[in-house]
Amino acid sequence: MDDLCLHSSNIKSIFSTLIELVKSEKRYRLTIKIWKDKRTIDQNSLSHMWYTDIAKQANQRLKTNSYTMDSVKHDLKEMFLGYEEIEHKNVITGEMTKKLELIKTSDLDIGEMHFFLQQVESWSYQNGFKLRIPNNSEYRKLQLEQVA
Fold first, then answer.
1. Backbone torsions φ then ψ of 102, nearest 5 degrees
2. Where are the alpha helices (DSSP H) in 10-137?
3. Which of 113, 94, 129, 103 lies closest to 44, judged by CA?
4. Which SUPFAM superfamilies match (predicted)?
5. Is 131 helix (H, G, I), strand (E, B) or coil?
6. pLDDT, tens digit, for every residue of 92-102?
7. Which of 102, 3, 108 has the alpha carbon at shortest distance from 47?
8. CA 83 to chain centroid
9. Which residues pair with 66 in a beta bridge?
10. What pLDDT was estimated at residue 71?
11. How far apart are CA 61 and CA 71, in angstroms?
12. 10 Å Cβ neighbour count for 36?
């Protein structure tokens, strides 16, 4: 089941779904938390633009081709987002294992992604990397609102 947004207009539908799930006699895990929209496509596009900007500039500085959009993305996520512990049940043995996995930006909500982008922007300028910020991007619009 995907995420559900619980509100007064869909409560009956959610109750019906829950009743059907209970009838299956399987056990389910429910997590209830305040709804926050996931990061936007615009935020994701901007972050990928920035990873590419940083990779190109790092390659120029160091006269190499070893930095890629993906390697920069990994390093910045590691620096600012960190890792979370993930449990995995082996389908063959049933053994439960835990491992650390880099936090995915797709799991961030709009506010968390904006904060991550601010951290990347600040780090970039402190380290001499110039980032493009399109005038029509959500990020630029929020910057301009903060100044006004």
1. -60, 135
2. 11-23, 41-62, 69-80, 110-126
3. 113
4. NinB
5. coil
6. 999 999 999 99
7. 108
8. 12
9. none
10. 98
11. 16
12. 11
